Amino acid sequence: MIDRTTMKTSSLAIAIALMLAACGQPDSSKAQDGVFADNRVVPGDATSMKASFAPVVREAAPAVVNISARGVRTVQDPFWSMFGMRPQAQQVGSIGSGVIVRPDGVVVTNNHVVENMQQIRVTLNDRREFPARVVLADERSDIAVLQLEGVNERLPTLNIDDREEQQVGDLVLAIGNPFGVGQTVTNGIISALNRTETGISDSSSFIQTDAAINPGNSGGALVDMDGDLIGINTAIFSRSGSSSGVGFAVPATMVRRVVDSAVGGATAVVRPWLGVKGETVTADIARSLGLERPQGLVVTEVWPNGPGARAGIRQGDVITAIDGAEINDQGGLNFRVGTREPNETVQISVLRDGRVQSVDARVQRLPGDADPDKALLIRQGVLTGAQVLALNPALADSLGGDPFTSGVIVGSVNPRGYAARFLARGDLILAVNGRAVTNPEQLENIPRGAQITLQRRGQQATLLVR
Question: Which residues are catalytic?
Answer without folding.
Answer: 112, 142, 218
